[in-house]
């Protein structure tokens, strides 16, 4: 299936590992031009060289730096067609153990950084009458995860922003969607579930009975970035092995 992405100009945030790297690889495989970023220069360079992508360093916990990544990618590419919004999640913790200042930091990295990246991307996309924004958030926005109070809170706010933006820019040929990963085999999930028994307990709630692979999530992201997905916007789609139990 030709996704119509050959030659498209793409920015992938946090593209050095896990889901972000898998997305960068999937889009490069479709012939897209990709600029990725990471917080560590060595890892960003390695990912870029291995994937055949351009790379840069950006601190995505800082909303202004996150927006600056998109601006830099646009300049390097000579325009921008696709933005994959991604970033490091807040630390684990229960509400009872989380200070107010921790919420401010979480909102910076998982809400305001999302806003900043989208604000930097939309004017270029709208002016050309075509664009795709796909954000990687979390199943926690639909079905909050235990011990992830900060992520559940900040990413839910990001989902509200993304759906609002989707309605505002749809007539300009720009789609805005999000994917909601469940438990995937990434360093982030392994870091949260350091106890094998805890991971086994979490997987008991996944009908598929296993961790997803980053490539499975990236395949959906690539489709949402494609020509074929032009009538899909404002969606928040779980990629979770059936873990989400709600009807809507």
Automatic annotation (TrEMBL):
<dbReference type="InterPro" id="IPR002347">
    <property type="entry name" value="SDR_fam"/>
</dbReference>
<comment type="similarity">
    <text>Belongs to the short-chain dehydrogenases/reductases (SDR) family.</text>
</comment>
<dbReference type="GO" id="GO:0004316">
    <property type="term" value="F:3-oxoacyl-[acyl-carrier-protein] reductase (NADPH) activity"/>
</dbReference>
<keyword id="KW-0560">Oxidoreductase</keyword>
<dbReference type="InterPro" id="IPR036291">
    <property type="entry name" value="NAD(P)-bd_dom_sf"/>
</dbReference>
<dbReference type="InterPro" id="IPR050259">
    <property type="entry name" value="SDR"/>
</dbReference>
<dbReference type="Pfam" id="PF13561">
    <property type="entry name" value="adh_short_C2"/>
</dbReference>
<protein>
    <submittedName>
        <fullName>3-oxoacyl-[acyl-carrier protein] reductase</fullName>
        <ecNumber>1.1.1.100</ecNumber>
    </submittedName>
</protein>
């Amino acid at each position: 299936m030709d996704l119509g992405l050959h030659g498209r100009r793409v920015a992938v945030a946090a593209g050095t590992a896990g889901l972000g790297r898998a997305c960068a690889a999937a889009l490069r495989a479709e012939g897209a031009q990709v600029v990725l970023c990471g917080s560590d220069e060595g890892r960003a360079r390695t990912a870029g060289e291995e994937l055949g992508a351009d790379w840069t360093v950006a601190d995505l916990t800082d909303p202004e730096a996150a927006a600056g990544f998109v601006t830099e990618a646009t300049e390097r590419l000579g325009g921008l067609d696709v933005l994959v919004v991604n970033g490091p999640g807040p630390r684990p913790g229960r509400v009872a153990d989380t200070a107010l200042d921790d919420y401010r930091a979480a909102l910076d990295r998982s809400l305001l950084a999302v806003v900043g990246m989208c604000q930097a991307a939309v004017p270029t996309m709208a002016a050309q009458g075509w664009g795709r924004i796909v954000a990687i958030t979390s199943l926690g926005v639909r079905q909050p995860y235990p011990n992830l109070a900060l992520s559940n809170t900040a990413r839910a706010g990001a989902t509200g922003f993304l759906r609002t933006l989707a309605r505002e820019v749809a007539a300009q040929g720009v789609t805005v969607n999000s994917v909601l990963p469940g438990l995937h085999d990434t360093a982030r999930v392994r870091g949260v579930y350091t106890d094998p028994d805890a991971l086994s307990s979490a997987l008991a709630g996944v009908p598929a009975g296993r961790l997803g692979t980053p490539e499975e999530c990236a395949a959906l992201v690539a489709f949402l970035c494609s020509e074929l997905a032009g009538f899909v916007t404002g969606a928040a789609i779980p990629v979770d092995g059936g873990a989400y139990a709600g009807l809507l």
